[in-house]
Design a protein that fits this description.
This protein is an alpha+beta fold. It folds into 2 domains: 295 residues, Catalase core domain (Catalase HpII,  Chain A, domain 1), CATH 2.40.180; 76 residues. The protein has 15 helices and 10 strands. Strands 1, 2, 3, 4, 5, 6, 7, 8, 9 and 10 form a 10-stranded antiparallel sheet that branches. Strand 3 and strand 4 form a beta hairpin. The structure holds NADPH dihydro-nicotinamide-adenine-dinucleotide phosphate and protoporphyrin IX containing FE. Protoporphyrin IX containing FE binds next to strand 2, strand 3, strand 4 and helix 9. Belongs to the catalase family. One of its GO terms (biological process) is response to hydrogen peroxide. It holds the Pfam family Catalase. It is an enzyme of class 1 (oxidoreductase).
Length: 501
């Protein structure tokens, strides 16, 4: 910034003569209608808020670089992966899910982990969470589920009764609930947690072969979580703990890094694999599909302006690039539609022209006009296709290989297909085989604390229904929670008759 004085002006450039005293009829008189500067200041202020995101409203963002460290060109022709050492600029936004824009960063909640890769063939958005699974596996359930995480319509309070009522009636949520209730539900800011693309996507290589893929970002800072009481204490001390932590780390040159890894499933395996690979409530065990290194993502630049860059950032799972495609995951299919729709509502139809969202490489199409079109609108170039004037063409080499949707495909989606309604095996493995005894104890304690919040006439019904799910995942998990809640466990013990059923 140079030290030359600069004139204060209206938005249309007229210099101000005075900025703090409104024009009045005499020193003590009423104000004059002609004080346009007063009107402009007040009117613009009144329009400063845009709708907050309906979910993931509280968040933090930063720019960085993704660098390829391992060759995966046998699986994908995506240009950003075409050379070891290749760098791609990224913008990332982390978030909590259920709270409002001013809510606490240390709430027990999944954390959003959204990455925008500005690749030379378009922006690729990987809009994931810090967990590999989700609460529901059909997009029709999303709005109902989210309502239970927001405020009760009557009390305007968060309601553990609504949450556990819903979870207990939707046992497919159990895997995600168990992760949420472990100390991974309260990470120490955003730097010490993993990120997951969560859905199954596809990779397409230069030969036109398709592979199913899951993306994992492993924190290179290690995993650090708050205990339940520590997270509560931080809420009282610093609502914005995660924002402050990320901002200060980057300002001080402690650039956080994540190792990007993939699990790859050959296309044909999907038909025979023991789990439905497109079910968002299940993981692919690492021993079946091991992690393969891809590269390193580093965040190294704070945005200059929170509203312009973080609040106006817009991510969409539909934004993929050549070499990366969708999958039949029903949740992903639902999200393809929902996000651009949300952005058009929140930011307007031209949201992709906002600098943080704009593709930094050439964009050619015939979209024109609309509110806040500020990029020249294509100037004199034709606004229709085909035309005799420009040289814009669709390039068939970007086609994806055809996908066979035969009767077998329908069978995978059969709600009663073996394994699809098994909501218990993977959570049981997580509790028994992955968690240490200390982590098990913390998880039980967090669940007991959360379930103690259930109240009202349906309390017993909700508690019992949810306990049954915990028992089905793991007997000792169910027992520990039941004891913590002072529930008589005898009713959950198999009787001689049911044990032989
Ligand atoms: P592995 O032992 O190979 O992997 C276990 C995974 O669990 C690691 O990625 C670990 O992450 C992660 N983890 C550890 N504690 C927790 C926790 N409290 N909440 C969530 N994740 C945790 O086992 P499998 O691949 O056979 O999977 C076993 C279970 O582990 C699954 O049922 C699932 O619940 C969980 N899991 C599996 C993942 C997968 O993609 N296979 C991914 C994440 C969890 P880290 O290495 O960072 O400590
Ligand atoms: C944000 C819908 C599932 C991760 C949002 C937003 C909507 C939405 C409308 C707000 C977008 C905006 O205004 O900018 C849905 C629907 C889902 C779904 C309909 C299921 C059908 C998921 C899942 C994940 C996820 C499974 C993670 C695996 C995120 C993230 C954000 C977000 C990270 C915030 C992005 C940002 O930082 O701007 N979601 N969501 N969502 N969602 Fe989802």
């Amino acid at each position: 910034m140079d030290n030359q004085p600069q004139k204060l002006t209206t938005a249309s450039g007229r210099p101000y003569a005075e900025n703090e005293n409104s024009q009045s009829a005499g020193a003590r008189g009423p104000l004059l209608l002609q004080d346009y500067i007063l009107h402009e200041k007040m009117a613009h202020f009144n329009r400063e808020r845009i709708p907050e995101r309906v979910v993931h409203a509280k968040g933090s963002g930063a720019y960085g670089t993704f660098t390829v460290t391992n060759d995966i060109t046998q699986y994908t022709r995506a240009r950003l992966f075409n050379q070891v050492g290749k760098e791609t600029r990224v913008f990332m936004r982390f978030s909590t899910v259920g709270g409002e824009k001013g809510s606490a960063d240390t709430e027990r909640d999944p954390r959003g982990f959204a990455v925008k890769f500005y690749t030379e063939e378009g922006n690729w958005d990987l809009v994931g969470n810090n967990t590999p699974v989700f609460f529901v596996k059909d997009p029709k359930k999303f709005g109902d589920f989210i309502h239970t995480q927001k405020r009760d319509p009557y009390t305007n309070l968060k309601s553990p009764t609504m949450m556990w009522d819903y979870w207990s009636l939707n046992p497919e949520s159990l895997h995600q609930v168990l992760i949420l209730m472990s100390d991974r539900g309260t990470p120490v800011g955003y730097r010490f947690m993993n990120g997951y693309g969560s859905h199954t996507f596809s990779l397409i290589n230069a030969k036109g072969e398709r592979f199913w893929v899951k993306f994992h970002f492993k924190s290179m800072q290690g995993i650090r979580n708050f205990s339940g009481p520590e997270a509560d204490a931080m809420k009282a001390r610093d609502l914005d703990f995660a924002q402050r932590d990320l901002l200060e780390a980057i300002d001080n040159g402690h650039y956080p890094k994540w190792a990007l890894k993939v699990q790859i499933m050959p296309e044909a395996d999907a038909k025979t694999y023991k789990w439905n690979p497109f079910d968002l409530t299940k993981v692919w065990p690492h021993k079946d599909y091991p992690l393969i290194d891809v590269g390193v993502l580093e965040l190294n630049q704070n945005p200059d302006n929170y509203f312009a860059e973080v609040e106006q950032s817009a991510f969409a799972p539909a934004h993929v690039v050549d070499g990366i495609g969708y999958s039949p995951d029903k949740m992903l299919q639902g999200r393809l539609l929902s996000y651009p729709d949300a952005h058009r509502y929140r930011l307007g139809g031209n949201y992709e022209q906002i600098p943080v969202n704009r593709c930094p490489y050439a964009v050619h199409n015939y979209q024109r006009d609309g509110q806040m079109r500020v990029d020249g609108n294509g100037g004199r170039t034709p606004n229709y296709f085909p035309n005799s004037f420009d040289t814009i063409v669709a390039d068939a080499s970007y086609k994806e290989p055809a996908q066979t949707l035969d009767s077998l495909v329908a069978d995978w989606y059969d709600r009663n297909a073996p394994g699809d309604n098994d909501h218990y095996t993977q959570p049981g493995i997580l509790f028994r085989e992955v968690m240490t005894p200390e982590q098990q104890m913390a998880t039980v304690q967090n669940i007991v604390t959360a379930m103690r919040g259930i109240s009202g006439p349906k309390k017993e019904q909700i508690v019992f229904r949810q306990l049954c799910h915990f028992f089905r995942a793991d007997m000792s998990l169910g027992m520990a929670i039941a004891r913590g809640l002072n529930v008589n466990v005898d009713q959950f013990m198999p009787t001689a008759q049911s044990a032989h059923a």
